[in-house]
Amino acid sequence: MLSRRGGGLETGHAALPQAALQIRGSRARALPDRALVNCQYSSATFSTGERKRRPHGDRKSCEMGLQLRQTFEAAILTQLHPRSQIDIYVQVLQADGGTYAACVNAATLAVLDAGVPMRDFVCACSAGFVDSTALADLSHVEEAAGGPQLALALLPASGQIALLEMDARLHEDHLESVLEAAARAARDVHTLLDRVVRQHVREASVLLGD
């Protein structure tokens, strides 16, 4: 049984201090040819200005968990761990916009820290079209404006899209600029995460005397 926990990360507009990951056997749900990816999302009562208590397993949490599962199924090499289950737990303590993207970026670090093989980093960013301008990494105020919003999760090395979702209609003339804004920001996130991971590996190697 392998169990690792990812450290804290504050990225985008959501504070995500914990993204835990486990690999374990599960006879009831195990798949014979690959690992089962399970993602659970929750947000603290004080994470937004509403101070609204959300019951466990509410619709928003289930939808976010499903999005995260679909995203990481596209990146994790699940065939290397048959009859296993990979659990990713994400809790949001402060949600000021771009929650999905922050969850993906934090969980990516947790998965890497646990030593789970992946095809590539998974880097995400939100984007929208506000006042005839394509904007990346939307804040809560910009999201509340009600314009079209796009969420993108990207595998930067191959350019493969792990997840793409839009919550409102957007004219096709503007889609390319909004998508490019999200992709460019996701690649910037990859540059940052790659630098942090490499620095962490170097420091760990020095401590281990390698």
UniProtKB/TrEMBL annotation:
Gene Ontology biological process terms in this record: nuclear mRNA surveillance; poly(A)-dependent snoRNA 3'-end processing; rRNA catabolic process; rRNA processing; U4 snRNA 3'-end processing
Keyword presence, rRNA processing: yes
Keywords assigned: Acetylation, Cytoplasm, Exosome, Nucleus, RNA-binding, rRNA processing
SUPFAM superfamilies: Ribonuclease PH domain 2-like, Ribosomal protein S5 domain 2-like
Domain Exoribonuclease phosphorolytic: 33-117, 120-184
Gene Ontology cellular component list: cytoplasmic exosome (RNase complex); nuclear exosome (RNase complex); nucleolus; nucleoplasm
Main location: cytoplasm
Subcellular localization(s) per the UniProt record: Cytoplasm; Nucleus, Nucleolus; Nucleus, Nucleoplasm
GO molecular function, one term: RNA binding
Pfam families, A to Z: RNase_PH, RNase_PH_C
Family named by the database record: Belongs to the RNase PH family.
Protein name (database record): Exosome complex component RRP41
Protein source organism: Mustela putorius furo
Organism placement in taxonomy: Eukaryota, Metazoa, Chordata, Craniata, Vertebrata
